[in-house]
Amino acid sequence: MAIFSLPERKAWVLRTQHADYVIGVDASGALQHLYWGEPLSISDDIPSTAGQHAWIWEPEEGNSREECMPWGRRNFAEPGLKVDFADQTRDVVLTFDEADIEGNTLRIVLKDVLKSLQVTVCYRVIDIFDVIERSVDVKNTGMGPVNIEQVMSAIWHLPVYPSYRLTYLTGHWGAETQLRRELLHEGKKVIEARRGITGHNNNPFFAVDFGEATEETGLVYFGGLAFSGHWKIVAERTPYQTLQIAAGIHDFDFRWRLEAGESFVSPVCVGGFTNQGFGDASRKLHGYQQQHVLRGSGQLRPILYNSWEATSFDVNETNQKELAAKAARLGVERFVVDDGWFGQRDHDKAGLGDWVVNKIKFPQGLGPLIDEVTSLGMDFGIWVEPEMVNPDSDLYRQHPDWVYHFPDRPRTEGRNQLVLNLAREDVQAFVYNAVDELLSTYAISFIKWDMNRYFSEPGWPGAPVGRDREIWVRHVNALYDIWRRLQEKHPHVQFESCAGGGGRVDMGIMRYADQFWTSDNTDALDRLRIQWGYSHAYTAKSMVCWVTETVNYMNGRQIPLKFRFHSAMMGTLGIGMNLNHLTEAEMEEAAGYIAQYKTIRPIVQEGLCYRLSPPEQSDLTSVQYVAKDGQEAVVFVFRHAQHFGHPALPVRPRGLAPSARYRNVATGEVRSGQGWMSRGILLRLTGDYDSAMIRLVQDESNTYESK
Ligand code: DGJ
């Protein structure tokens, strides 16, 4: 049973396979956090709500561990809820009203002691991955309006330890998902986005350990926020040695008005626990995403070709057909035309918003190209950026009021474009109709949905009274709703979320996005770091990686084709090269890697990921994927640069069945799983940018006799 209540103690245990999460109602009626960690199999071990230590100046109620810590009384920590009532009251005290268990979901209803405000704290247990989804639903049960000024999806209270360490992802355009790990001292560490989208600078993922966990060992608490807008995660360490993680919509510039009877439902925040280190934390998140977040569980992602780096805005029927023919020869399964096919889009200064096929580039529309692509055995995908408009566009000339702006003030452009106000219903209808028409007219199987600037001047002239600051959430919800409706009507179409590379990667849009464009940085060496960080929070199946040309535009680096392929084969493989620049020999070599990828794709996309050797620790990066049934494993090894003639260090695989026999497909060598894991694999990787892909497959006589 995933959830059981202990009525005599007014407590609930949320039980997953390897963890218990316990909450209970204290004597004052507050819902308190009691425990999170390894399972408490004996009921005597389940803590009671009594015994919160009281400090002078910080009396019990101000030092407690409420599950939804409202701002009121003497709660001084980062609040889970802050509300402004019509009579200017700004104090909330929540007490238990009722609880309801339905399958793997627990809902606890809390009410303010005096005001007509109801808060339902919702927990959904996903037991095999040891994660809990949390959200809150705030309802105005009174007669007058109420303003929500802050609402966190979850406050996670960690057990008390002498030391806490936060793992998070930071970066910027071209350098997304860079892994950071730092000790938390007293005070707050905030990771956030206040730019309208998830952002490149931080990602809504966290992991906390007690300073000792490794990839394979130690207690790790981890999670992420499923939201693609304005968010914050606050790790707050008090001088009393406690740590809480508050995660939710950012309160900055946010206000949500609840009329009588209205509710506000927060996004979901996911939290999980493992006692087996960061690697297991990631595998749990990956499995959860594959089975509970991504659409079409079990569907593998096709190998795509995207022409952006090859032809940029100069797309036309002839050059795309030429590339398509070459892509098909390589074994590519999906051909994607990127930016430049519509309106007056010859550069990034014009055309966004005018979603009509450019008749100079495609005189008979997209039909002939799509026919050609499908006759070559591939499906067809196309790029759009429908939340945006260039001032130099017919759309903007007709509707200059459709963008976020403050009246009579300048509108700041980013990449020569402005953001359409998706809080407006007429704009939502326009965006939906533009993409729906495209999908209804043409045989399109894939949409790459881009978004190339952050918000500025987030004004909504004409907004209903008191609702102008809701745009931070309304935009995101409208986007989700548009994708959901498009997908209902066109269920075969897959979606990629892109925001100038990986600017909109999160578990919120992952419910609709089948994959993410990880980064515009396609330098295979930089990618090792970007992908390493990415793998902490998200499954490889969602991580799109293109093989592009050498010299790479980002760092001017020249990397052999093999290394470029191996780097990109660690996620959902794509090709972004100008195929006209490849020699016959390179075409053949590339086709070979693509064929190899097809054989390992289920293991990479749906298997268990083991990070073996981090890019920053030595001159070697190594990542391994193991099939869920343990039958097969694939190990990628990258040597960045050899120095002093040193041989490459051995790479020790993990996650193999210890007593099963595994054969190295390339060399024929057979060892037990334990043998491979203990002795490791010695590879002759020399010079700069050498790489290898090793496949270990269980032998027919697959176990050793036990002696
Ligand atoms: C930014 C994306 O990240 C690129 O892949 C490409 O689609 C361009 N936009 C097109 O403008």
Salient structural properties:
about 700 residues; alpha+beta; TIM Barrel; Immunoglobulin-like; 10-stranded antiparallel β-sheet; 8-stranded parallel β-barrel; binds (2R,3S,4R,5S)-2-(hydroxymethyl)piperidine-3,4,5-triol
What's the SSE blueprint?
Elements: E1 3-6, E2 11-16, E3 19-25, E4 31-37, E5 81-85, E6 94-102, E7 105-112, E8 117-126, E9 131-140, E10 146-158, E11 164-172, E12 175-184, E13 187-193, E14 205-209, E15 220-225, E16 231-237, E17 243-249, E18 256-258, E19 263-265, E20 269-274, H1 277-293, E21 304-306, H2 308-311, H3 317-330, E22 334-337, H4 367-375, E23 379-384, E24 388-389, H5 394-398, E25 418-419, H6 425-441, E26 446-449, H7 471-489, E27 494-497, E28 515-517, H8 524-537, E29 543-547, H9 561-568, E30 572-575, H10 584-606, E31 608-613, E32 620-626, E33 632-641, E34 660-664, E35 670-672, H11 673-679, E36 688-703
Parallel strand pairs: 21-22, 21-30, 22-23, 23-26, 26-27, 27-28, 28-29, 29-30
Antiparallel strand pairs: 1-2, 2-3, 3-4, 5-10, 6-7, 7-8, 8-9, 9-19, 9-20, 10-17, 10-18, 11-12, 11-14, 13-16, 14-15, 15-20, 16-17, 24-25, 31-32, 32-33, 33-36, 34-35, 34-36
Helix pairs in contact: 3-4, 6-7, 8-9, 9-10
Bound molecules: (2R,3S,4R,5S)-2-(hydroxymethyl)piperidine-3,4,5-triol.
